[in-house]
Amino acid sequence: MTFNRMTTVAALLICLGCVCFGRAASSEGCDQDEREALLKFKADLEDPSSSLSSWVVQRDCCIWSGVVCDNFTGHVTELHLGWSSSWDGSVFSGKLNSQLLQLKYLGYLDLSNNHFQGIPIPSFLGSMSSLKHLYLDGSGFGGVIPHQLGNLTNLKQLGLQAARDYVLYADSLRWLSGLSSLRYLDLSDVDLSNASDWLSMINTLPTLSELYLSNCRIRYIPPLKNLNISSLSSLSLYHNQFAQTSIPSWVFHLQSLTYLDLGVNTFDGPIPDQLQNLTSLRTLSLSGNRFNHPIPDWLYRLSHLETLYLCANKLDGKVSTAGIGNLSSLVYLDISDNHGLEFERGIPESFKSFCHLRSLSLNNVILNQNVSELLEIIAECASDTLQVLLLSSCQLSGQLTDRIGVFKSLNRLSLGNNSISGSLPMSFGEMTSLYYLNLARNKISGTIPTSFGALAQLSYVDISQNSLDGVIYPEVHFANLRNLACFYASGNQMVLKAKPDWVPSKLLDELDLESCYVGPVFPHWLRSLQHLKSLDLSNSGISEPIPDWFWSMSSQFYYLNFSHNQIPGRLSRVIPVVSTYSLFDFSFNCLEGALPTISSNLTFLDLSSNLLSGNLFKFFCFNPSEMRATEFLNLFGNRLTGEIPDCWKTWQSLSIMRLGRNKLSGKIPRSLGYLSSLRSLRLQNNRLSGEIPPSLQNCSRLVTVDLGHNGLEGKIPEWMGQRLSRLSILSLPGNKFHGSIPKEICNLQSLQILDLSHNSLSGTLPKCIANLSAMATPNNDTSGLISPFAGAWKSFSDSLILTRNGQLFDYSTILNYVRSLDLSSNNLSGQIPNQITSLVAIQYLNLSHNSFSGAIPEDLTAMLSLESMDLSTNQLSGSIPSTLGSLTFLNCLNLSYNNLVGKIPSSTQLQSFDSWSFIGNHELCGPPLNAADCCNDSRMPGSMDGEENDEEHALHWFSGSVVFGFVAGFWGVIATLAFVRLSQTQNLS
């Protein structure tokens, strides 16, 4: 016994000695071979911030940055070289040296979120057999994933998420079958479109617990007969756009799932009931699919849910206020942007028990609730936890109260596009965590509270389209907003009073103060904003010239809007632009002088309604070999002279061109035919001459052609109806066109506005006019007249000035819905074809001042959209159709100076018009005409004896002579006045 005890004690002493010796050995530093391997590994890395400066020979490698050693052996076991917010080092690049193979005991390697610029993942990593954790996520590796990784049989966690700028792919995942110990696998953003074996190989990993396959371009989910991954707790198949529309049945058998993300795919129909079998779920995301029907009742019974994302589907119906109250464990709830979800009585009282709530997103869900009541309910238990509250377009009303200040943790607040009124409370300044604020498109009034300046974290603010007024003192209201990057306040009536030395947030990237008074002095505080890229100071009362220092900044902008001010002076000789997509708007100012030279990158330029003069040659023909990116060009309403230059070959991106209302002369150049992208050509109200060049038929995308009020001549080309099949607007009034209206015009199925008035056209109106189907389609918006400039900046639409009832009307925002046919003041003859009544969507019809004869078409009841009809000064005969009285939208009618006879039909509609609508028809009678009732039987021919007839005839002759003399003199004066008015109208248009 004693011997055995002594033996045992000796053995323990020997073991203790070994341990002490091991510790003593480790105190001398890490293994020499491993130190040298790490130094060689470092030599091939690019380390711009010297994050590995501690990696030097003189120091123990176990205390180097990112290195972890075993406490007893001193061997390197972990390398933490991945970039994260907690890592003080830089992002590495370069290449990976195979000396890592010398780290025989390395079990943990993290190189995630670096920038290896598309180099392949080194295959030698597959020989590091001791690895248990390998993270290469987002490190910029490219090419094929090496199959040698399948040799890492001890691997438990593998992160290979690809970086967005580089393509990492696998044609097969067969190598996965060797990783039998794998518990965590992330292949997000890896291209698996050709790896048809992806599911069968993953199914060979029985210990797999977490699987992330987001955005892998997988098109098909195969069925599974034998499910070997039943231990899976987390599954993400987010954003794959599968070909099938049903969730595969094997997903419903993953009973251990706590996390399921099937968002942004093509699943549709009702949310499947089988999902309720996944009783362990804590996170369920089905966002961005096509699920419809109401939210199923069983979902409200998943009381353990912490995250529920159902946004951006087509769900409709009412949200059960009683049911949703059961989900009091929710931390994140997003059911926004569905087809028509609605809370029956707003946010229910049960939300007072949602004490864990951090994010609530209900954008576009109908609440129809008082905003202060809603906030009071949420604040009951979540005022300290709530970080995100998104309630835009929820039909909220009422006023914000000081109670909003209790949300101390709130960092995102969106209440835009509601009917919230009243002023902003001072307690806004107490939400010190707020960095995103959207209150746009409400009815908020009053001034911005001075407490706004306390929100030091604010980065994004949108208070546009409200009724805010008062004075903003930036030194107070923006006192601590040093992180402000985007500020939108358009559509208010505020006044900005900044001291000359005020310096805004240097991070300011986008600033929109449209309709806010900033002037009259040009704001010099803009000079300090070196990061500003988008600026809107339109309609802001500036009446001082743009200083030279600002033009030197212009290259940093992609959006610049100074329109609707009174800015005088000249433009810079050169407007430089760096951005590849940029928009500059200086319209409606007092700018004068010659046109500037613009950068070839400038996409949108609007200099309309200024005082610019000179010719166009230098502007268009400068550097004729350089291709232009310009898509929208508006020089309308200036004083430009000379001919339109013939150098359009380099402007082939041009989509919308407006040169109207200038003093341009000469012919339309043939080189306009190079503009194959042209959709809108506006050259109206100039002094152009000659014929329309045949080369324009190459511009087959044209939607709008407005050449009105020039001196163009010849015949209207037949090819306009053959080659310009997309035309929606053809406006050629006030020219010298002659000949007949070509029948080919009837081919224009999209034509909704045709104006050929005030020319010398002759012949008949083609019966094929019934083929103009857009004029028979009410409010169908088939034209595509809205220009492509939308999204990042405001939407710009095409426009047209039309003459209605002697007045000018500018149609822009509603132009897509206008249907008009104007052939007035020509030499057209023959009958008005009955086929014209099939154009049931026409609102404005003007065939006046021609030589049309015959009867007015009878079947006018179909033209229910007709608002104005002018058939005056023709040779129409017969009676007025009684169907005219059924046109309830008709508010302007002119049938004067024809040969119409009989009694005006009785109807509330027709009798509401003035007598001027019917004068000049000598055989026409009845209200509203004041003439003798010629329809009385006692005055009809044959009702009197001869003597009385003679006396009556003499009296009528005398009266007629007097009336004729009066009318002739009166209308002589009126005609003179009308001619003067017409001249003025043409000058205006």
UniProtKB/TrEMBL annotation:
GO (cellular component) term, any one: plasma membrane
InterPro entries from the UniProt entry: Leu-rich_rpt (IPR001611), Leu-rich_rpt_typical-subtyp (IPR003591), LRR_dom_sf (IPR032675), LRR_N_plant-typ (IPR013210), LRR_R13L4/SHOC2-like (IPR055414), RLP23-like (IPR046956)
Signal peptide interval: 1-24
Subcellular locations according to the entry: Cell membrane
Membrane topology label: Single-pass type I membrane protein
Ranges for domain Leucine-rich repeat-containing N-terminal plant-type: 32-70
All residue ranges annotated as the Disease resistance R13L4/SHOC-2-like LRR domain in the record: 95-267, 351-538
Gene3D superfamilies per record: Ribonuclease Inhibitor
One Pfam family per UniProt: LRR_1
Record bears the keyword ATP-binding: no
Protein name: Leucine-rich repeat-containing N-terminal plant-type domain-containing protein
Species per Swiss-Prot/TrEMBL record: Linum trigynum
